[in-house]
Amino acid sequence: MAVAAHADARHAAAMDQIAPASATLPRFTATEIAQYRRDGYVVARGIMGPRSVAACNAALSDLATGHLPARDTVLMYESGHDPATLPPEQREFAIRKYMDFVPAAPALEMAAMNRRLHALLDQLLGDGRVLFQEMALVKPPHIGSEKPWHQDAAYFRLTDPGLIVGVWIALDAALRENGCMELVPGSHLDGAMPHQHENDFNRCRIIPQHVRAAERIAIEMQPGDALIFHSLLHHYTAPNASPLRRRAVQFHYHQIGAVWGELAAHQRLFHFPDGSYAGCTVPHAPEPHDPAKPSGYTYRAGLERPILPVDPLD
Ligand SMILES: O=C(O)CCC(=O)C(=O)O
Q1: Taking Cα atoms as reference points, which of 52, 43, 37, 57 lies closest to residue 4?
Q2: Chain centre distance of CA 113
Q3: HSE of 161 in the Cβ direction (CA atoms, 13 Å)?
Q4: pLDDT tens-digit series, residues 105-151
Q5: Is the CB of 137 under 6 A from ligand 1?
Q6: What is the CATH number of the domain that holds 145?
Q7: Whose CA is nearest to atom 3 of ligand 1?
Q8: Residue 115 lies in domain
């Protein structure tokens, strides 16, 4: 797989000789595996082909209009946009996030279970994992909001962030202008950072002094490319002020044997200097739409869906 790596060329060439080849499934080179460990991310280009990408986009449209029964899917809208006031075919242009869609949408389930992807994850992390979170992040043209700098492990009360991996798959070209992923290479090695909610539950950010923002890089991707990243990697996406769509699915997996902990265990990782909780699994402030009322949010551990690898449509 092609990646932008920063490794010493001679060392890389030597390591690549030990990476076995497979005729059928993609393999990361030893250089790419080393990049994941050192930089906290690696890009797998073309993990899904155009038919798979089109099927995922059609499923997202159909969930928004109601043509596909949404079952347990949760749709979250950009602030100030009320689905009740929108015709069904316009709703997807105001949606920011879909969650829990796998049982409702076979095409999206296939993306999560993609055999090629899991062959690569096996190489990075070892055999045996579950899917525990599924989201589609579809920053709409002109109004798509930013996602502040964060570490995904701040959202999950799992006690070993190294056993969690995020996979972000582009369904449109993801470019600087429409809010592609930006990240700080190597930031996963800095450990768990204190986070604070900004003004709504989806906007939980690393306290800015802890982000080495000057070292950020933008990861531009084509539809079907996957960014595979460590759960402590600092990452961000900018607002989408452009006329371009920027749809993506994001899956989180953890290796079997990872342990869901209580709040106290999460607090041992994510805390302020005074020891108080600094993760994202408890609201830090009342909801802005009703400052008198605390958020109705209740933390829920992962869904733990078994992995049943399937060949993508291509
Ligand atoms: O796709 C995006 O805009 C942000 C995705 C992300 O980092 C997240 O939701 O954790």
Answers
A1: 43
A2: 15
A3: 26
A4: 999 999 999 999 999 999 999 999 999 999 999 999 999 999 999 99
A5: yes
A6: 2.60.120.620
A7: 237
A8: 24-306
